[in-house]
User: What shape does this take?
Amino acid sequence: MNDPTLPRACADYEHDLVDLHDGALAPEQARTVRLHVERCARCRAWVQTFAALDAQLAAGLPRPALSANFRRATSGAADRPVEARRTR
Assistant: This one.
């Protein structure tokens, strides 16, 4: 979106719309954004267009092939100190 002509209410939600689609909002914030989308035809149309584009990209792009040991190598990596994750 990133449209400087948007009404203030829509501009307040423009980044949240993507996060809502991705399921990345806290429940209360998601509820607030959904209420705005229900009441705002412009944002509702944008969400529908974004969802359709996202689905087309997901269907058309190849999934990356992960190595056989990917899960083992990354399991718990975020929980280990940075020093322990470095390979030499």
Summary: The chain has a mean pLDDT of 84.
